[in-house]
Design a protein that fits this description.
about 240 residues, alpha+beta, five-stranded mixed sheet, two-stranded antiparallel sheet, about 40% helix, about 25% strand, binds zinc ion
């Protein structure tokens, strides 16, 4: 996991030795080298859209879980629980039924704008793939356009689409950055996510109040310390209207 203050100068140095388009090749290099646990025996995982059949299966599984914890699934208060849990799970994982293409839906504008665009404090809720327990917090997303910009709400929608899947915070952070890179081909993208994990606070080490911070820096945010610092200062700054 990368911390906010990390400064991977060694990596950004090697990127500059690439061909005519250092930005593109640097991104490809990172995608190729990053360890990917999002696969099944090295192949793309089989992820299916949810269906009514899937919902029935999930309800049966919840029924089994209720029995397994020692409960009586037929008692009054629990009768509708399998259905409620299945519907809640479908909602919390609805990001599997969305795609980046549909989400962006052509809402990209050629504004000739080349200054940093930053959306701070995007609340997100996700489920960790290790325990299927919630982790939640705030995302800060910035990019420096290369002429093309996108509606600000789309940035929040991209965060939400990837958050509503089973995740690890590190991958979630990187997927958001890479999605923006893919859609806008900007000069750089920076994503910082701060979250608290229920699997750490409710069980395991039980450390309420602990936060995990992850970051993904692409393009100029990785290559230029000044740009990265400007971003980090902006997300630390407390606005005086709140
Ligand atoms: Zn977990």
């Amino acid at each position: 996991m990368t911390t906010v203050s990390s400064n991977d100068s060694g990596r950004s140095k090697s990127l500059n030795t690439n061909g005519s388009n250092p930005l593109k090749s640097s991104l490809l290099e990172q995608i190729a080298s990053r360890p990917d646990r999002n696969t099944h025996n090295g192949k793309a995982a089989q992820i299916k859209a949810t269906s009514e059949v899937a919902k029935e299966k999930m309800m049966a599984a919840v029924y089994t879980m209720l029995e397994s914890v020692g409960e009586d699934p037929e008692r009054e208060g629990l009768l509708k629980t399998p259905k409620r849990v299945a519907e809640a799970m479908q909602y919390l994982t609805s990001g599997y039924n969305q795609s980046l293409e549909k989400l962006v839906n052509g809402a990209i504008f050629d504004e000739g704008h080349n200054e940093m665009v930053l959306v701070r404090d995007i609340n997100f809720f996700s489920l960790c793939e290790h325990h299927m327990l919630p982790f939640m917090g705030r995302a800060h997303v910035a990019y420096i356009p290369n002429q093309k910009v996108m509606g600000l709400s789309k940035l929040a929608r991209i965060v939400e689409m990837y958050a509503r899947r089973l995740q690890v915070q590190e991958r979630l952070t990187r997927q958001i950055a890479e999605a923006i890179q893919e859609v806008l081909e900007p000069q750089g993208v920076a994503v910082v996510m701060e979250a608290t994990h229920m699997c750490m606070t409710m069980r395991g080490v039980q450390k309420p109040g602990s936060w995990t911070v992850t970051s993904a820096m692409l393009g100029v945010f990785q290559d230029e310390q000044k740009t990265r610092e400007e971003f980090l200062n902006l997300i630390r700054h407390q606005p005086n209207f709140t």
